[in-house]
Amino acid sequence: MTRAPAVLTALGVGCAVAGAVALVRCRYVVVTVEGDSMTPALADGDRVVVRRTRLAAVRSGQLVVSGPPTDERWNQLPLPAWLIKRAAAIPGDRVPKDAGPALRALAEDRVPDGRLVLLGDNPRRSLDSRHCGYFTSGQFLGVVVRRLPRAAAGDRRPLPPPGHDGRTVPGRINPPWPT
Fold this sequence. Notes:
Blueprint: H1 3-27, E1 28-34, E2 47-52, E3 63-66, H2 72-75, E4 83-89, H3 101-104, E5 115-119, H4 129-132, E6 135-136, E7 140-148, E8 168-170
Parallel strand pairs: 1-8
Antiparallel strand pairs: 1-2, 2-7, 3-4, 3-7, 4-5, 5-6
């Protein structure tokens, strides 16, 4: 009978640890940067931790991860699952119309609710709001909270950690979109 409380305690601790691990894995994602769309802030091969959050928690200037553009013009291109960009304007901010042609074409002077303007730090290599206008809250994944140490030299594409879905955030050297 004295073993039963110890077994129950161990079982309880195991469940608590498993629950904590599951919560962390649902809340955070590790993403590997491919390409140079965010240089100099992030380089090809950098890994970042992304905290899943709501668009309302984003501040201008933060690095964020979003899905690619979704309209018909972009559906024909082989785009990545995720893009990493800088939040240049959030709901209520002025639209930076001088940043690119798609932003100049927008009717609003302020970013509407549920939308944001995302720009890559390397404009010549970045598919972003300069080319496709607003990104929506439905495309938004989360905010970059930390850059992880780089993989060992010569190992440019490390295996994803256990439980990671292997998604990457590529930029492209020769972008397939019109520049």
